[in-house]
Design brief:
Blueprint: E1 6-16, H1 20-30, E2 34-40, E3 43-49, H2 55-64, E4 71-79, E5 88-90, E6 101-102, H3 110-116, H4 160-167, E7 188-192, E8 197-199, H5 202-211, E9 216-219, E10 224-229, H6 233-243, E11 252-254, H7 257-263, E12 264-265, H8 268-274, E13 281-286, E14 299-303, H9 308-313, E15 319-324, E16 346-350, E17 362-366, E18 369-374, E19 383-385, E20 396-398, E21 408-411, E22 414-417, H10 427-444, E23 450-454, H11 460-467, E24 472-475, H12 477-488, E25 497-507, E26 513-522, E27 525-532, E28 535-536, H13 542-545, H14 547-559, H15 574-586, E29 592-593, H16 596-606, H17 619-629, E30 642-644, E31 650-653, H18 655-666, H19 671-697, E32 701-705, H20 712-724, E33 728-730, H21 742-755
Parallel strand pairs: 1-6, 2-5, 9-16, 11-14, 13-17, 20-23, 23-24, 25-32, 27-31, 32-33
Antiparallel strand pairs: 1-3, 1-4, 2-3, 7-8, 7-16, 9-10, 10-15, 11-15, 12-13, 13-14, 17-18, 19-22, 20-21, 21-22, 25-26, 26-27, 28-29, 30-31
Helix pairs in contact: 12-21, 14-15, 14-16, 14-18, 16-17, 17-19, 18-19, 19-20
């Protein structure tokens, strides 16, 4: 670069709070540049002049050698006026309106762990040790640009030694905003919740109490865990009683991989995600059962420690239950005052405030890629780039659905989707929804010009959208499901696809309860090409909680009044069975549904795998999946079904399947074989319907989405059959296929409408 040349670079992406500025400082100095680097409202600004290298070399090294947590989305550059600077420096943030991405909360790095375990280090056994490469981020940020004064760490004055590290560009703690040490940082406190007395030696005492079978609330990054010894059956049973959670699996935190491998089979790609800086809970195949942890399913949910406090707690307790501290269906607790003796014995807390709560992320790993059951800590708020063909200048809010809600915001070519927020029919979760939206507004100086919601008129999210008094689009539930993976995979508008959207419930345009949908679609709209044939939903919402009702509904359609003597129905009193049949016959409180989720409920109950009343959503399908997985390599058979092609949409009749299942049950076929063949039947049904779409409409792209595709067995079999037949198949990877992705799909719809100046919703 000649002495008369200078350049201004603007780097966008996740480039604040990840050690990016000191990295640029070292790179520029190494290449002989003078100039400066600073945080600005929409990224990091770099001014370069007088370098030994050329700009191309700097840009190559900028991308190749960036810090591990940085995600560079774009680098724009232009010539600038030389300033005559003689050296390179790091400048303060400029205070512009912020639109920059903050890193998610990241697990403790190896260098910090070594310090914690080294008696010679000043942070020896300090539970809040962090550096630029690890520690809290999203959960402590109050506003952007990301500087200490805009985080909850602003309440702690740095000591001289921390200040020296913080200001040294060559130190790995340079501008690490959560920097702390035992002299100046957060401190632990252990409280006996019966007496409210503070106990001495909080860490050591907490370990002793857990080993004695006590239950502790432990403050983490995004909220409190309830923790107990996972091998203490009495403690686990008591925790289940407190949580009113008798069968739903409990999450486990293990000291290390060796402990996990005692109880679960860990594939190489699962190990990669377990040990990643994001530290999700990964569902793993059981090798050895842990009584009381995950009854009736074949997986255990494990995570590794992700804060220094977790590492220190697990030194002498190799395996603990670590479940969120909330009551059933409420948001995770983040503040001390909401922890009391009704939910645990002791409170292990600290004085670093949590600005934004976030649950642990939960995933399966399928062919090396995540399949999210819940996307939160570690992955939020990563930005989703929007294809140029969908970018607009406005700011858009998508408010998701009613269950498993998320919010998505659009600004400057990116979509940011919130953490999992829960079910909005719970008042506390709705407050969490509002709290999160306000947080995102502050972080990104976001002011929506347009809002988009579900089609259902009575969802809390829809009502909220209406009350904003700004232009409002509404999107059919399963269409939004189908669009979400297109935005994630950056599929450009115009390409036709078949959206196979299977879940429990979505409000259909005909007013029925949809849930087994095949939509011929592009970004602009959809046609309902086929669906699972309608069946009555006796009792309405009650049928989703009592799977025997759906079993009777399917039996009635398959056999009429002459129901077969299925063993599992003996659990249901005759008068109840007759009452449900009467409801179906007289069409009383029995709306029609095409729900694939309710089909799984029915078959799971018929096979005797599910109790008459479920405890948690998807309990019945989870048990059916577990049974099928036991025979994942055999048999290869499937049941008959019928595709009724008298009109569009085609109707997919599973009555022949139900009749054959009942025949096998009468012959005492094992439920595992029936479950396996049932999954294969559905995969084949999807293949045959996709073939029809290809033959009749020339569609070759298939999108698999909806909560039913959280079923590993169904997903793998369906994808295998479709790809073998030449279809291009995509599914959600960094978003959940469940209702968490609705806000992303709604956003894709709104972007297309705005881009094409479509005023109609």
């Amino acid at each position: 670069m000649s002495p008369n040349e200078a350049f201004r670079l603007l780097v966008r992406g996740t480039v604040q709070g990840v050690g990016f500025r000191p990295f640029v400082y070292r790179l520029a100095t190494q290449l002989g540049f003078s100039g400066y680097v600073r945080n600005v409202g929409d990224g990091v600004e770099i001014h370069l002049e007088n370098g030994r290298a050329n700009l191309t070399e700097f840009l190559e090294k900028l991308r190749e050698q960036a810090p591990p947590l940085a995600r560079i989305e774009a680098v724009d550059w232009q010539p600038a006026e030389p300033t005559g600077l003689k050296e390179f420096r790091i400048d303060r943030s400029d205070g512009e309106e912020p639109f920059v991405f903050i890193s998610p909360d990241i697990a403790t790095c190896q260098e910090c762990l070594e310090e914690i375990n080294n008696p010679e280090e000043r942070r020896y056994r300090y539970p809040f040790t962090n550096c630029t490469n690890c520690g809290p981020r999203y959960t402590i940020v109050l506003s952007l640009p990301y500087d200490r004064c805009r985080t909850t760490m602003s309440e702690f004055d740095m000591c001289t030694e921390c200040r020296r590290e913080y200001e040294d560009p060559l130190d790995r703690r340079y501008h690490a905003q959560p920097i702390a040490c035992p002299r100046c940082g957060p401190q632990l406190k252990l409280i006996d919740l019966r007496t409210r007395q503070e106990l001495q030696d909080p860490l050591e005492t907490a370990v002793r109490l857990i080993k004695k079978g006590k239950i502790l609330a432990v403050k983490g990054l995004g909220g409190f865990h309830l923790i107990c010894d996972a091998t203490n059956r009495k403690a686990v049973n008591r925790l289940r009683k407190i949580k009113s959670r008798q069968r739903k699996p409990l999450a486990l935190m293990a000291r290390d991989l060796e402990i996990i491998k005692r109880y679960a089979r860990v594939q190489a790609d699962e190990e990669k995600w377990l040990t990643s800086p994001f530290r999700p809970i990964v569902l793993l195949e059981k090798k050895k059962d842990l009584p009381g942890i995950a009854p009736c399913v074949e997986t255990l949910g494990f995570m590794l420690p992700y804060t220094p406090l977790h590492y220190l707690l697990l030194e002498k307790i190799p395996l603990v239950v670590a479940t969120s501290s909330n009551r059933k269906d409420a948001p995770i607790i983040k503040d001390d005052e909401f922890i009391n003796s009704e939910i645990c014995d002791y409170l292990l807390t600290h004085n670093r405030r949590i600005a934004m709560r976030a649950d642990d992320s939960v995933m399966k790993v399928i062919k090396g890629k995540p399949l999210f059951l819940r996307r939160a800590r570690g992955f939020v708020p990563f930005p989703q780039p929007v294809p140029e063909s969908l970018r607009v200048s406005g700011e858009i809010l998508a408010v998701g659905g009613e269950l498993k809600n998320t919010i998505s915001i659009y600004k400057n070519g990116y979509v940011i989707t919130s953490q999992f927020l829960g079910d909005l029919d719970d008042y506390e979760n709705f407050r969490y929804f509002e709290e999160t939206l306000e947080h995102l507004k502050k972080l990104f100086s976001f002011s929506p010009e347009l809002v988009v919601s579900d089609l259902h008129p009575d969802f809390w999210s829809t009502r909220f959208a209406r009350n904003l008094k700004i232009p409002h689009y509404q999107v059919q539930h399963h269409f939004a499901h189908s669009l979400a993976p297109l935005l994630e995979h950056r599929v450009p508008p115009g390409e036709k696809f078949l959206g196979v959207s299977w879940d429990g419930y979505g409000y259909g345009q005909d007013g029925a309860a949809w849930g087994g949908e095949f939509l011929l679609a592009d970004h602009g709209g959809y046609e309902r090409f086929a669906h699972l044939d309608y069946v009555p939903l006796p009792g309405g919402d009650l049928a989703s909680r009592e799977p025997w009702r759906m079993a009777i509904s399917y039996l009635y359609l398959a056999f009429g009044n002459d129901l077969p003597a299925v063993k599992s129905l003996r659990k249901i009193p005759e008068r109840k069975r007759q009452a449900v049949i009467s409801m179906i016959e007289n069409k009383i409180n029995s709306p029609l549904t095409s729900s694939a989720g309710r089909l799984f409920d029915a078959v799971s109950f018929l096979c005797g795998l599910t109790p008459p009343a479920i405890e948690y959503e998807a309990e019945a399908p989870s048990r059916l999946e577990a049974a099928a997985w036991k025979l994942s390599l055999r048999p290869e058979g499937f049941y008959p079904f019928e595709i009724k092609k008298d009109r569009i949409p085609y109707r997919l009749d599973l009555s022949p399947t139900i009749r054959e299942i009942c025949r096998e049950l009468s012959k005492k076929s094992p439920p595992e074989i029936i479950a396996r063949k049932f999954h294969l039947t559905l995969a084949r049904l999807i293949l045959k319907t996709a073939r029809l779409a290809r033959e009749e409409r020339k569609v070759n792209l298939v999108v698999l989405t909806g909560g039913v595709f959280l079923n590993r067995h169904l997903l793998l079999e369906t994808q295998r059959l479709l790809e073998r037949d030449g279809f291009r198949v995509i599914r959600p990877v960094y978003y959940s296929p469940g209702d968490e992705s609705l806000s992303l799909g709604q956003m894709a719809f709104a972007l297309y409408r705005m881009k094409n100046n479509r005023a109609d919703a």
